[in-house]
Amino acid sequence: MSGGPLLLKLEQHDRLSDEEKRVLENAISRIRVVEADEDIVHEGDHPSESNLLLDGFAARYKIFSNGRRQITAIHVPGDFVDLHSFLLRAMDHGVLALTPCRIAVVPHTMLERITAEHPHLTRLLWLNTLVDGAIHREWLTAMGRLSATAHMAHFICELFLRLNAVGRTDGDTIQLPLTQAELGDTLGLSTVHVNRVLQELRKEGLIRWQGDALTILDWERLKTVGEFTPTYLNLQHEDR
Amino acid sequence: MSGGPLLLKLEQHDRLSDEEKRVLENAISRIRVVEADEDIVHEGDHPSESNLLLDGFAARYKIFSNGRRQITAIHVPGDFVDLHSFLLRAMDHGVLALTPCRIAVVPHTMLERITAEHPHLTRLLWLNTLVDGAIHREWLTAMGRLSATAHMAHFICELFLRLNAVGRTDGDTIQLPLTQAELGDTLGLSTVHVNRVLQELRKEGLIRWQGDALTILDWERLKTVGEFTPTYLNLQHEDR
DNA sequence: CGCGACCTTGACCAGGATCAAAATCTGTGG
DNA sequence: CCACAGATTTTGATCCTGGTCAAGGTCGCG
């Protein structure tokens, strides 16, 4: 039980057999809950299990000695936030719960077993980490070549589609439980500038954001502003 | 034969059995040569084989409609430049030969066979793509939170270590066959500013760069300036 | 009611972009 | 070996996006 969002996510990419679903669900050793603002995994850890996010939002981040922080990924339900620790061994970054998170824990021994016995499932898990990589590349281009406003628009488009893919949208509205400071750490901007950029998007009638609820008011124009094309998210269904 | 640099690279992470080495070498269907400034793979392609760089330098890049370009990775001998296309299917970016490149071609059917029959080797190939991801994350933090000078220093440190890992350094000197414009596309800077930053690093006595040959004159200070710590490159040897 | 977190605003500053032009360097054909 | 064209590097001047600093305002909560 409880592997729901991951199944949903893997099944976007390719069909899972009933046996594969069973294997995946049996790979979960326990469910844990992490409070908001707590680390799910610490930088430098050498974990022996990986964390699959079932509910809540999380962020991967790196901190510099002087306190500057960069968030390198935002995770939503269905994301395997540190599947890579299975092979990378040492965590080169921390993972923070942005909201209370419900997490399925998968021991690395189970992952190893999957790689030994279930090649197709292995490929889908591998694929999962490859999509993470594709998102990183997209963020790199957004960071390097888009204006602050465009970058913000791009980020919102992406998050909307990713949430939509796991059924966590409500019409044109998503939950966006980030402070403006955290958004700044995500986009590489100062908090002050995040605020101004958001005001601009609001003034232009592209979004509404009150409390946690962010509504996309003009999807087409938001996509244009953010130069957003969703192919990199690999949401199409193919044999893998 | 000819899988040399990849073997070298995979063996940094873990030991390969003789059989695994043989399998890997047999997976190569042919060797091809790509001229400098030619695409090795085009964005949008749906390739049926992956390219392992044996000699030369290559870059992954995305282009915007207005011609702006962002390079998201620099590849050196031993890098599997598009291993991800095995599972991602569509190329979400192009791969460009920066110099003449000698490439080993591995059909996806062979990769699929490896995933079916050689779990440990599969894990090492997966690991390869995970290290790519770790590098992307590091670039993201460098891009978001480092000054132009620090970012440049960081980039040079990384490239040096990666070349060193595959035996392509000559003392403190590496080959850096990028124009300043290409460096700008890599770091998200303008060509002009790349030039100024390089002059600063030279004036500070940190590097020398003439023609293709870049020499690190003061490794310690360069590391400090670039806030560089190499753990993310995962150059340690562990069981995987 | 009061405190702390967060958001908002304004004034000013600076890192890096842009524009333009000159200086080098490279390769090519004669 | 030279001349020349194109690419690349360098320099200077100016502009502007986004950072920094500082102060209020707002909201939720104990």
UniProtKB/TrEMBL annotation, chains A, B:
Domain HTH crp-type: start-end pairs: 146-220
UniProt superkingdom: Bacteria
UniProt-recorded Gene Ontology molecular function terms: DNA binding; DNA-binding transcription factor activity
CC terms in the record's Gene Ontology section: cytosol
Pfam families given in the database record: cNMP_binding, HTH_Crp_2
Key words, A-Z: DNA-binding, Transcription, Transcription regulation
InterPro entries named in the record: cNMP-bd_dom (IPR000595), cNMP-bd_dom_sf (IPR018490), Env_Response_Regulators (IPR050397), HTH_CRP (IPR012318), RmlC-like_jellyroll (IPR014710), WH-like_DNA-bd_sf (IPR036388), WH_DNA-bd_sf (IPR036390)
Cross-referenced SUPFAM superfamilies: cAMP-binding domain-like, Winged helix' DNA-binding domain
Name of the protein: Helix-turn-helix domain-containing protein
Source organism: Microvirga makkahensis
